[in-house]
C-alpha cells in the first residue's frame, strides 16, 4: 500500500479518535452536570424545609399529653419502619444507575440473568415483615388509643362537655357550674373526660399537642380523653371545613396547676355573665371571632337539651306534616275531582 494512503488512514484514524474523545467528554460532562444539578436541587429542598420548619410550632411532634405522646411515638415508629424500605430502594436506584451507565465499560453485562433466590427473598421478605409489624402495631395501638378508653390515674377526672357551634366552641363543666367559650381550662396531670356533640354542621375537635381529633355531629354524643403533663397553653382547632367562619374556629387549652384551677372555678362560678337558655340561644347563632368568654352555668342539663333537640322527632314531624298537608291542599285546589 502506498505511503500516502497509509498517512491518510493514520490521519483519519486520529481524527476519528479525537471525535469520539470529544463526544465522550461531552457525555461525561453532561452526566456530571446532571448529578451536580440534582444534588443542588435536593440541598435546596432540604434547606427550604429546614428554613420553613425552624422555630415553628409543630404540636404533632412537640406533644405534652399522655395520649399525644403515644401518638407521636407511633408516628415516629411507622416513619422509621418506612425508611427501612425507602432508603435502601433509593440508594440502590442511584447505585445501579451509576454502575450500569453507558460509559462504564467495566460493568458486567448479563442479559440472561432472570432471578436470584437470595436477592428475591431479601427484597420481598423485608417489606412483608414490615407490613406484618405495621399490622400488629395498628391493631395494638387502635385499642390502646381508643378515644372512649378512660385514662388510668389516681387523680379524680374533670368532666367537660363540648359543643361545636358556628363558628365557636362551648365548653361546659357540669360538675363545676361553669362554662367557657373558645377556651378550655384544665388542671395538669389530671384526666379530662370530654363528651362532645354539635349544634351545627358536623365538625372536628383537635388539640394536636394533647390528643387526637374526633368528629362531632348533631344529635350524637362521642367521647375523648386527654391529660396534659405540664403547665402551658395549647392551640386547638376545627379540623373539618364547616362554613364561612371555619378558618377562625380555634380555641386554646390552658393547662394550670390544681390550685390555680380551683381558684379559677370559684371565681367563674360567681361570674355575672350568666349562661341561661335564652343566652345560649343567642350564642348559638352564626358568628365569627367571638373571643374568649366565661359564664356561670344556669342549666346543668344544657348539654343534654342540645343533644335531645335533634333526637326528638315529635315537634319536627308535626311541623312537616302541617307543611305537607298545606302543600297537598294547594296542589289539589286547581284539580278537577
3D structure, described in words:
The relative contact order is 0.10. This protein folds into two domains: about 110 residues, no CATH class; about 150 residues, Immunoglobulin-like (Sandwich). Helix content is about 45%, strand content about 20%. Helix 2 packs antiparallel against helix 3. By secondary structure, the chain is an alpha+beta fold. The C terminus is likely disordered. It has a seven-stranded mixed beta sheet with strand order 8-5-1-2-3-12-11.
Per DSSP E runs of 2 or more residues, the count of β-strands stands at 12
Radius of gyration: 34 Å
Number of helices: 7
Mean pLDDT: 84
CATH class of the largest domain: Mainly Beta
CATH architecture annotation of the largest domain: Sandwich
Major beta sheet summary: 7 strands, mixed
How would you describe the shape?
A: elongated
Number of domains: 2
In CATH terms, the superfamily of the largest domain is: Cupredoxins -  blue copper proteins
Ranges where pLDDT stays below 50 over 5 or more residues in a row are: 314-337
Compact summary:
This protein has helices at 3-53, 66-99, 117-144, 258-269, 277-283, 302-308, 314-332; strands spanning 158-165, 168-173, 178-181, 183-187, 192-198, 203-206, 214-216, 222-226, 232-238, 250-256, 274-275, 293-297. The chain is of the alpha+beta class and 337 residues long. It has a seven-stranded mixed beta sheet with strand order 8-5-1-2-3-12-11.
Amino acid at each position: 500500500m502506498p505511503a500516502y494512503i497509509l498517512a491518510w488512514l493514520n490521519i483519519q484514524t486520529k481524527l476519528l479518535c479525537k471525535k469520539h474523545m470529544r463526544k465522550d467528554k461531552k457525555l461525561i460532562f453532561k452526566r456530571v452536570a446532571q448529578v451536580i444539578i440534582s444534588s443542588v436541587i435536593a440541598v435546596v429542598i432540604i434547606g427550604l424545609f429546614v428554613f420553613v420548619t425552624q422555630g415553628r410550632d409543630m404540636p404533632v411532634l412537640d406533644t405534652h399529653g399522655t395520649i399525644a405522646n403515644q401518638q407521636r411515638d407511633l408516628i415516629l415508629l411507622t416513619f422509621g419502619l418506612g425508611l427501612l424500605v425507602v432508603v435502601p430502594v433509593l440508594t440502590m436506584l442511584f447505585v445501579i444507575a451509576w454502575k450500569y451507565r453507558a460509559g462504564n465499560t467495566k460493568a458486567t453485562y448479563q442479559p440472561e440473568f432472570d432471578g436470584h433466590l437470595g436477592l428475591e427473598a431479601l427484597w420481598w421478605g423485608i417489606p412483608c415483615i414490615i407490613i406484618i409489624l405495621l399490622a400488629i402495631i395498628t391493631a395494638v395501638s387502635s385499642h390502646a388509643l381508643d378515644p372512649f378508653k378512660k385514662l388510668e390515674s389516681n387523680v379524680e377526672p374533670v368532666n367537660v362537655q363540648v359543643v361545636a357551634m358556628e363558628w365557636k366552641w362551648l365548653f361546659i363543666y357540669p360538675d363545676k357550674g361553669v362554662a367557657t367559650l373558645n377556651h378550655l381550662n384544665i388542671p395538669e396531670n389530671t384526666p379530662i373526660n370530654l363528651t362532645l356533640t354539635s349544634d351545627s354542621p358536623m365538625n372536628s375537635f383537635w388539640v394536636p399537642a394533647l390528643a387526637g381529633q374526633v368528629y362531632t355531629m348533631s344529635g350524637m354524643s362521642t367521647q375523648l380523653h386527654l391529660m396534659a403533663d405540664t403547665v402551658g397553653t395549647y392551640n386547638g382547632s376545627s379540623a373539618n371545613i364547616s362554613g364561612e367562619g371555619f378558618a377562625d374556629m380555634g380555641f386554646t387549652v390552658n393547662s394550670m396547676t390544681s390550685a390555680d384551677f380551683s381558684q379559677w372555678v370559684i371565681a367563674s362560678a360567681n361570674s355575672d355573665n350568666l349562661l341561661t337558655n335564652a343566652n345560649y340561644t343567642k350564642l348559638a347563632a352564626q358568628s365569627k371571632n367571638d373571643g374568649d368568654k366565661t359564664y356561670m352555668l344556669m342549666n346543668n342539663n344544657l348539654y343534654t337539651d342540645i343533644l335531645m333537640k335533634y333526637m326528638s322527632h315529635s315537634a319536627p314531624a308535626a311541623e312537616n306534616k302541617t307543611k305537607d298537608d298545606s302543600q297537598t291542599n294547594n296542589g289539589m285546589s286547581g284539580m278537577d275531582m
